């Protein structure tokens, strides 16, 4: 199986399709949300088929509810398998989060306590995904704004242990690291220092929003703005430390015109090309 | 947690968290670095769930949104989302229950046509994502016997019989158009399909065209379908609607469909829609 290139990619949005077809030779790969391609046919599949012909593809799921208590949705796994068989993406990734409860889909990535019980549940679910899809998956660290008193395992240890037990890779979302650390008033560099970088198959960058709480800012990973400067700095530090990795710029809301998003990818590519030293040049 | 009571296990935790998204009661154990901010932080998730679903509905029902106005639409959509949660992570066809919801939503009791608008918008979503099928080539019809010829419809093709002038209202409320009106009470029938450019036009059609398309959908041979059309509308000419369907790619190559109603009395070799 091929893998994503150690280059900068972007999240694909249909609004950018025409511009991409004219200018996108420099984009390393495109990532799509799997659930947007679970209709039977029509324009979404026509566009993805055209992209697939020219670029590596990362399939990113948002609906599996891997952190949920119940068994995984077998129908949804079958839909994912069908997409993977059809498009043969270089990567499949999902989140350390839950999004369904019973038969209800809640349409958000919700947080979970980190305990021995939830560790076992998530490992079972990752095993089930990898078995159903016939491939290794990447699991993404979440952006959170709450903590749980019942948590007994630090998030990095939780992710490391999942990766060790299941063999899955990790998707390191540096914006999420920054958002969570800011929200919990902890040090993102301490988190990154402990993160098992040898398991990282992809890096995510994205924009966040901010509200004011009495104790300080509350950051929300809205993916509706440029990547923030402190996130670029952390990214450059990670690349300098571990070398190049496939890097995705996410922009899901308040979409900019294509050149703005492409410029974000260029900035990531400059950092990759400079071995983490490209930050000043690209800024 | 007082008294050394064990904190809830994961099924109970997720159940209480999901309930709290509706009622605002904090899930057990939820806290923050400054614990008195826990409720404010939990509200972020409550808000994300609501906004995510409202935005999904807004994307699928743009004319309902325009007719209601942004504030009213979002308030209505919030109620709908809380009472009709999606049953699948695939939101592409969520909203099938919106027409029925609008019919019984008390604040909209004076606007019964809105349900028909929602039916059109839901059908357009289904058509947009319907399966791909190769269009019928005109040459395939050369020399065909119309009494035995069965024309297959693309899976996107739908006929909606509506009690209100909803097609006219829908068309008048497209982006950049003046909504116009008034719209005198009148039933309308909508033809909805996805064309070869992936556009999903909506057209008002007469009773003959509607009967013809519905007959084709049941697998009737062309002659029988034309007869039903002439019964519904005397002196109906089937050619314009057939040309229109073919030009849109809404007549498809036989033998590739899996969603046609099987003919109750198939004639051997005569039904191109089977298999």
Automatic annotation (TrEMBL), chain A:
Q: What is this protein called?
A: UPF0276 protein EV216_103169
- A Pfam family annotated for this chain is MbnB_TglH_ChrH
Q: What is the lineage of its organism?
A: Bacteria, Pseudomonadati, Pseudomonadota, Alphaproteobacteria, Rhodobacterales
Family, similarity comment:
Belongs to the UPF0276 family.
The lineage's top-level taxon is Bacteria
Residues passing through the membrane, by range:
none
**Database matches in NCBIfam families:** PRK05409.1 (NF003818)
TrEMBL record, chain B:
Domain spans labelled Putative DNA-binding: 15-102
From the UniProt entry, list the residue stretches annotated as the region Disordered.
252-275
| Superkingdom to which the source organism belongs | Bacteria
The record's listing under InterPro entries reads: DUF2063 (IPR018640), DUF2063_N_sf (IPR044922)
User: What protein name applies here?
Assistant: Putative DNA-binding domain-containing protein
What is the protein's species of origin? Rhodovulum steppense
């Amino acid at each position: 199986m091929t893998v994503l290139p150690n280059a900068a990619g972007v999240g694909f949005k249909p609004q950018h399709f025409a511009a991409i077809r004219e200018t996108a030779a420099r984009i390393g790969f495109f990532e799509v949300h799997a659930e947007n391609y679970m209709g039977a046919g029509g324009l979404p599949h026509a566009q993805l088929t055209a992209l697939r012909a020219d670029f590596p593809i990362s399939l990113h799921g948002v609906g599996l509810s891997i952190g949920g208590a119940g068994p995984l949705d077998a129908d949804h796994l079958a839909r994912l398998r069908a997409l993977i068989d059809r498009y043969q993406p270089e990567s499949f990734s999902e989140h350390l989060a839950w999004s369904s409860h019973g038969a209800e889909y809640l349409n958000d990535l919700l947080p979970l306590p980190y305990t021995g019980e939830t560790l076992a549940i998530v490992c079972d679910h990752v095993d089930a995904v990898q078995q159903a899809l016939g491939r290794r998956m990447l699991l993404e660290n979440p952006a959170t704004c709450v903590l749980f008193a019942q948590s007994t395992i630090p998030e990095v240890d939780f992710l490391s242990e999942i990766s060790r037990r299941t063999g899955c890779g990790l998707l390191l979302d540096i914006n999420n690291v920054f958002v969570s650390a800011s929200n919990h008033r902890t040090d993102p560099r301490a988190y990154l220092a402990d993160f098992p970088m040898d398991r990282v198959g992809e890096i995510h960058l994205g924009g966040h929003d901010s509200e004011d709480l009495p104790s300080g800012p509350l950051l929300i990973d809205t993916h509706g703005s440029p990547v923030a400067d402190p996130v670029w700095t952390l990214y450059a530090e990670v690349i300098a430390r571990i070398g190049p990795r496939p890097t995705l710029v996410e922009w899901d809301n308040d979409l900019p015109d294509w050149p703005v998003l492409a410029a974000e990818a260029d900035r990531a590519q400059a950092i990759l090309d400079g071995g983490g030293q490209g930050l000043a040049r690209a800024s | 947690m007082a008294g050394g009571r064990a904190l809830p296990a994961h099924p109970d935790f997720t159940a209480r968290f999901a309930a709290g998204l509706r009622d605002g009661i904090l899930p057990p154990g939820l806290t923050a670095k400054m614990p008195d901010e826990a409720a404010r932080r939990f509200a972020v998730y409550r808000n994300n769930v609501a906004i995510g679903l409202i935005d999904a509905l807004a994307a699928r029902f743009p004319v309902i949104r325009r007719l209601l106005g942004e504030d009213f639409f979002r308030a209505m959509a919030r109620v709908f989302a809380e009472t009709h949660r999606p049953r699948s992570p695939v939101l592409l066809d969520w909203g099938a229950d919106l027409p029925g919801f609008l019919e019984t939503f008390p604040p909209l009791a004076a606007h019964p046509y809105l349900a028909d608008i929602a039916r059109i918008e839901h059908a357009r979503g289904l058509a947009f994502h319907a399966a791909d099928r190769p269009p019928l080539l005109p040459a395939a019809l050369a020399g065909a016997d119309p009494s035995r010829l069965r024309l297959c419809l693309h899976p996107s093709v739908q006929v909606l019989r509506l009690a209100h002038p909803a097609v006219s209202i829908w068309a008048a409320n497209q982006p950049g158009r003046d909504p116009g009106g008034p719209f005198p009470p009148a039933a309308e029938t909508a033809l909805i399909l996805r064309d070869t450019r992936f556009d999903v036009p909506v057209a008002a059609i007469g009773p003959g065209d509607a009967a013809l398309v519905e007959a084709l959908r049941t697998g009737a041979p062309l002659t029988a379908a034309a007869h039903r059309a002439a019964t519904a509308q005397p002196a109906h000419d089937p050619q314009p609607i057939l040309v229109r369907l073919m030009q849109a790619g809404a007549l498809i190559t036989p033998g590739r469909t899996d969603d046609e109603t099987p003919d109750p009395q198939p004639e051997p070799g005569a039904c191109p829609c089977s298999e």
